[in-house]
Amino acid sequence: MIRNSIDVATRVSPNLSTLIENRLNRAELEQAITLATIRDFVTGVLTEAFSETEQLHHFDINESSLDELNALIDEFGETALAVDFVQERASEPLSRIIDAVINDKDRKHPQTLGMIKEAMVSGLSASLVGAGVLDEDEDDDLLAEIEALIGRHGADALAEAFIRYE
């Protein structure tokens, strides 16, 4: 299957992105999850009565996840890999670390995920805990989180793109 050359994840709502990510996390490693697979999953979860009502009446102002998924299938095809439609963002604590590294005046180059990990390993996380920017319990899983992002996007991916603004 050919991967999309554009960042299609920016065209997906956070709710649908989360739904796709949850389905991907439950898949077998060898299984290629496509948009058609996600649609089958979503329609399988909905009760028949809800599915009929969903098609006849839209009770909420926002378009439904099923409508959004169908629009994506119309645009990108049923065989488009679902992983391309997942929005990757850092957790709030990791976003604070990324923000601290980006705003460090001693750094001149755009910061990458690899540079963020290096700063964390060099003691930045502990320093931020000491400064009260991070709680002690937040520090525990951040190294695993940055390693997972590096595993998916590479160490050279710009860190700023993963900051979660809430």
What does this structure look like?
With 166 residues, the protein is mainly alpha-helical. The protein has 2 domains: 8-85, no CATH class; 92-162, no CATH class. Helices cover 51% and strands 0% of the residues. The protein is built from 7 helices and no strands. It is elongated and about 50 Å long. 19% of the residues are buried.
What structural category characterises the helix and strand content? mainly alpha
**DSSP strand tally:** 0
Query: Main beta sheet: strand number and arrangement?
Result: none
Helical segment tally? 7
End-to-end Cα distance, whole Å, is 35 Å
Looking at the structure, what is the overall shape? elongated
Q: What is the gyration radius calculated from CA atoms?
A: 19 Å
Structural topology:
Layout lengths: L13 H12 L9 H11 L2 H9 L8 H12 L15 H11 L10 H18 L11 H12 L13
Helix pairs in contact: 2-4, 6-7
Structure in a nutshell:
This protein has helices at 14-25, 35-45, 48-56, 65-76, 92-102, 113-130, 142-153. With 166 residues, the protein is mainly alpha-helical. Helix 2 (35-45) runs antiparallel to helix 4 (65-76).
Describe this protein with a few key phrases.
single chain; mainly alpha; 2 domains; 51% helix
